[in-house]
What we know:
CATH class of the largest domain: Mainly Beta
Radius of gyration: 23 Å
Largest sheet: 6 strands, mixed
Bound molecules: CU-O-CU linkage
CATH superfamily of the largest domain: Cupredoxins -  blue copper proteins
Shape: globular
Helix content: under 10%
CATH architecture of the largest domain: Sandwich
Structural class: mainly beta
Amino acid sequence: GITRHYKFDVKLHNVTRLCHTKSIVSVNGQFPGPRIVAREGDQLLIKVVNHVPNNISIHWHGIRQLRSGWADGPAYVTQCPIQTGQSYVYNFTIVGQRGTLFWHAHISWLRATVYGPIVILPKRGVPYPFAKPYKEVPIILGEWFNSDTEAVISQALQTGGGPNVSDAYTINGLPGPLYNCSAKYTFMLKVKPGKTYLLRLINAALNDELFFGIANHTLTVVDVDAIYVKPFETDTLLIAPGQTTNVILKTKTIYPNATFFMTARPYVTGQGTFDNSTVAGILEYKSPHNSPHSSVLIKMIPLFKPILPALNDTSFATNFASKLRSLASAQYPANVPQKVDKHFFFTVGLGTSPCQHNQTCQGPNGTKFAASFAMPTTALLQAHFFGQSNGVYTPDFPSSPIIPFNYTGTPPNNTMVSNGTKVVVLPFNTSVELVMQDTSILGAESHPLHLHGFNFFVVGQGFGNFDPNKDPAKFNLIDPVERNTIGVPSGGWVAIRFVADNPGVWFMHCHLEVHTSWGLKMAWIVLNGELPNQKLPPPPADLPKC
Length: 546
Ligand code: C2O
């Protein structure tokens, strides 16, 4: 691989959407921010300079950061934020990943406007496991708020209520013609007939899982979270915040001068208010011979709209998830851990569920299950690396042996958690199985849980309560999908496996930003191994200080 240099100047920048102009934090004056393009095996040196009043940090979402945890980016987890006037060079190498990821601010709610695509091409000379596309197009889904998102979340945290919801969804920063005064802010994808396009979809929205489709077109899924999957066709995609999906769009040969909507709108299973609007972009066919009439013709042809599933279509979600399988080929093997050293069982819930976000749950046998996580005021990774955990974190994140959890009777007793920063400490190379159980069986919500520093295999999922006696027998240990963000099914559970082969401190949290703010987060500490290449090197000299 080669070394690629980028410079991110974080600046304020005026942007107008929905007839509202506001000053946003952005990178290089672009919204969405600049695209990073690299090949598998390349080293990236990205200098981030902070010119705004806010503290900033950038996370390279889904990048494995093998022994480069200092570059992962979550504020107060792997680094202190970059303060006004300061800079930091993120230095990491892309290992074993090809596809689409994204970068975003990882402090407070700044990722609402500070985000952009990461395109990872295969190594030079290595083909895709599918026919080479004619063109590649990043499509980044976002969420636009007319008001200042920092004010939105600080108000919500002060009042204890839910935050105001967004005013629009966006495709590459553009809300499109279904919103007020937005017709000229429409993403247009001009295509030629009879070609294949690789669409690199990213859900960078703060708080909403999204359905996406293109009218009259079928999409072939080929990659999720920068790992190839067995290709399958679908009319609709479901993408949770933090997830990415590469699809192949084959354009038709019979629509030389037509236009089609591509739209996205939310999948919502929980209670509470949400933005129930629809973003639209336009797929426009260009005839090969540019006839002088074509633009006139396009205006005369009505737009077709995709039909997306119902708002709370959990059976679509389940079916879609079940189609995602690793390639598991000789060239791209699925190294699913076959044995487990440590089992963990975390409950995931909010609000009216037995495990509230600010509470610890007491199981039937008195075992504590879940905890809310308090952000430290210094970075966990520094505290860990220099042996200064005292007063920063404690290694007692509550987990439990897997036991049946019955929510149909009286909910278990809750006890308030003392505000703690509790982590799980894992010896190097521990093979981990983690079952995450959605505890809110009534008003159940899907929570996209994101793990930093690893991909994991999704070995099982189901509805109701996880049954440790029956469910593991049905686990897929052959070709489960490998990813970094997984929806804990609404009213159900998911089981993942990963090997703790990456020393450092790794954040795990719900990628619905409001849930992270409310405490649905924790961290794993992976200890160094014995060999030199199993240890985290010391921090770079310019690592920001708190
Ligand atoms: Cu994309 Cu910790 O996040």
